Amino acid sequence: MNEIILHLSAGQGPEECQWVVAQLAHAFCREAMSMGLTGEPVEPVDGPSASILIRISGEGSDGFARARTGTIRWIGTSPFRPTHKRRNWFVGVKPVPTIEDIPDFRDADIRYQTLRASGPGGQHVNKTDSAVRATHVPTGLTSVSQDQRSQFANRKIARLKLAMQFDEQRRQGVAGGKRALWTQNQELERGNAVRTYEGLKFQPGLR
Length: 207
Known about the structure:
By secondary structure, the chain is α+β, with helices and mostly antiparallel strands. It has helices at 15-34, 61-66, 151-175, 178-190, and strands spanning 3-9, 38-41, 51-57, 70-75, 88-95, 110-115, 131-136, 141-145, 193-198, 203-205. Helix 3 (151-175) crosses helix 4 (178-190). The longest helix is centred in the last third of the chain and has 25 residues, at 151-175. Residues 120-126 and 177-183 have low confidence and may be disordered.
C-alpha cells in the first residue's frame, strides 16, 4: 500500500495560522476518505498547532499529496480576533522526505530512551513505558513520540520527527540561518496558493 506523510506548518504565522493547520488536517483526512484513501493524523490533533503530520495511504496517495503541496489559503474571520481586518491566512504543506534521502542522517548517531507516556490520556495513550525519546547525539536535537500503540511505532515516529528537525537545521544552515527563516516565512505569506478553503466549515474555494 502506498503511503505518504504530509507536514502541515503555520511557519512563523500567528495563532490563527495554527488554528488553520489543525482544521486543515481534519479537512485533508475527510477529503482522503472521500477519495477512497486513508487519512489520519500521526499524533492527536487537540487544538491549534504550529506543526502537524498526517499520514495518507492507499492507491493514489501520491497524487493527493501533489495536489496539496505548497501554500494553502484560508479565507475567513479570525476565530480569536473577530474585529481583525485580515481575511486571508496562509499555511504550508509539504511531503516529509524519506529518511534515506536526508544527507548525513545516520541511525548510528541516534540514542533512544523509553519513558512512560504522559498527557491528557485517552485510549491512544499507553500506560506502559512505550513512549520513546530520540536524541541525535552530534547535534543534541531531540524528539518524543508517545501516542502510537506500541514502542516500535513510537520509535519510528520519534526517528521521523528527529530526521525532519535535522533536515530543517541543515537547510537553514546552508541558506543562512535566521535569514533563511525570514525568507521562508515571506515565501509562505506571498506564495500563490495551490488550494483555498473558506469559512468555519473549511469549504473548498476557488484558488
